[in-house]
Specification:
single chain; mainly alpha
Length: 149
């Protein structure tokens, strides 16, 4: 059983290696074709007059810059979409914080210090035990909301 498992793993690795080699060979072939095209274009430009060579070089540079510009515009659009998404998330979180702060101010003043003392005690003892928490019945929705957030 172990030998068969090792043989299967070895065959899988061999197959993956062959697939990688094939992909690399295809990539090399494409690069060689591109290199040949560039060499032919270079030889053709050498046969042209100096003025035409300059014009051809400028055309190639314009094409390259145009393609680079299009890539940068595409990247800019992606970044702008991401910025909009992040701004929406920020607004949502700011609204949640405002709602939370508003709910905190609605708690009666005489219970707020008691509530803070309970939170401090729970935070200190949190590491030591897990247990029950005392709360007022009317604070239950607030407590549940705070637990969820």
């Amino acid at each position: 059983p172990v030998l068969r498992l090792l043989e299967a793993q070895l065959q899988d690795q061999r197959r993956e290696h062959e697939e990688e080699m094939e992909a690399l060979k295809n990539q090399v072939d494409l690069m060689q074709e591109e290199l040949e095209k560039q060499q032919q274009a270079f030889l053709q430009t050498l046969q042209l007059s100096p003025e035409v060579q300059v014009e051809f070089g400028l055309q190639q540079e314009i094409t390259r810059l145009t393609n680079e510009n299009l890539d940068l515009k595409e990247l800019l659009e992606k970044l702008e979409k991401n910025e909009k998404k992040l701004k929406k998330q920020l607004k949502i979180y700011m609204k949640k914080v405002q709602d939370f702060e508003a709910s905190q101010t609605m708690v009666p003043v005489e219970r707020r210090p008691h509530e803070r003392n309970m939170q401090v005690a729970v935070q200190r003892k949190e590491k030591d035990f897990q247990g029950m928490l005392e709360y007022y019945k009317e604070d239950e929705p607030l407590l549940i909301r705070n637990l969820i957030t």
